[in-house]
Automatic annotation (TrEMBL):
Species, as recorded: Leucobacter chromiiresistens
Taxonomic superkingdom: Bacteria
Main subcellular localisation: membrane
PTM (free text): Binds 2 heme c groups covalently per subunit.
Name of the protein this chain belongs to: Cytochrome bc1 complex cytochrome c subunit
UniProt key word Membrane: yes
EC number: 7.1.1.8
Pfam family, one: Cytochrome_CBB3
Annotated binding of heme c 1, by residue: C65, C68, H69
GO cellular component: plasma membrane
Keywords: Cell membrane, Electron transport, Heme, Iron, Lyase, Membrane, Metal-binding, Repeat, Respiratory chain, Signal, Translocase, Transmembrane, Transmembrane helix, Transport
InterPro entries in UniProt: bc1_cytC-su (IPR009152), Cyt_c-like_dom (IPR009056), Cyt_c-like_dom_sf (IPR036909), Cytochrome_c_Oxidase_Subunit (IPR050597)
Signal peptide interval: 1-35
Length: 269
């Protein structure tokens, strides 16, 4: 009888690592759920028309932006007016880390965000309250579509309107006076859409009369498609076109052929 009880205890005993594994799984699930909730709920919880949100944004603006843009966003010699730029412009510039500027230069550089998403939206709400301007994009136009027709439409629109600066592979390109068109891979759909409707830096504005919201969504679908597709041609060489490819062939390819020829000749002698 005692032996049977002992066997029962042995059979019911857990592996020493079982508890640790359960704790690790629980932490992973909890962390993932929290991250997903905080990302999706931040925008939903911030009411851009709420007086409390606008007041909070005004305080943040006064402490962090007024030095360059003026106490009432009227602009100064160091920064343009923000009256009429809309919530979309603020969300793009601050959300991508371009603002506040790290240093004075030809254009703002992407860097880690200085403010939380909630704080960014509060400042966007304040600027939007000053005068009408482009608002935040609707969620329905931010979902990358896997439909071939939408991707093909986006590719054609991108080629006509964007590729001359950003490169057909969205790898970016050089402009004049030290400016450049940034690469568009790894950019959030929200910021791609906002860039099209606000025209940041040297980029033109593509309003809904030029490119409809659905066409903007198609462009986003195309960009996400090429971002997630493997390079079928092998090494991309930065995707900057025939100059890099020609240089690679002449320097590396031809150099390898010459080196091989010298080696074979020396060996035969």
């Amino acid at each position: 009888m005692a032996r049977a009880k002992k066997n029962l205890r042995k059979s019911g005993r857990r592996h020493p690592l079982a508890t640790a594994a359960l704790v690790a799984v629980g932490l992973l699930v909890t962390g993932a759920a929290y991250a997903g909730f905080s990302q999706t709920s931040a925008t939903a919880e911030v009411d851009l028309t709420s007086p409390a949100t606008i007041e909070a944004g005004e305080k943040l603006f006064g402490a962090n932006c007024a030095t360059c843009h003026g106490a009432a966003a009227e602009g100064t010699p160091d920064g343009p007016t923000l009256i009429g730029v809309g919530a979309a412009s603020v969300n793009f510039q601050v959300g991508t880390g371009r603002m506040p500027l790290a240093f004075q230069g030809p254009q703002g550089m992407v860097k880690p965000q200085q403010f939380t998403e909630e704080q960014t939206l509060q400042m966007a709400a304040y600027v939007a309250s000053l005068a009408p301007g482009p608002g935040l994009p609707e969620t329905q136009y931010l979902q990358a579509d896997s439909d071939d027709e939408g991707i093909a439409s986006g590719a054609e629109l991108f080629r006509i309107n964007c590729a001359m600066c950003h490169n057909v592979a969205a790898a970016g390109g050089a402009l004049t006076e030290g400016k450049f068109a940034p690469k568009l891979t790894g950019v959030a759909p929200t910021h791609i859409y906002e860039a099209m409707i606000t025209g940041p830096q040297n980029m033109p504005v593509f309003n809904d009369a030029n490119i409809t919201p659905q066409q903007k969504a198609d462009i986003i679908s195309y960009l996400k498609y090429i971002e997630n597709q493997p390079a079928v041609g092998g090494i991309t060489l930065g995707s900057i076109g025939p100059v890099a490819e020609g240089l690679f062939i002449w320097v590396i390819g031809l150099g390898a052929i010459i080196g091989l020829t010298v080696w074979v000749t020396a060996k035969s002698n």
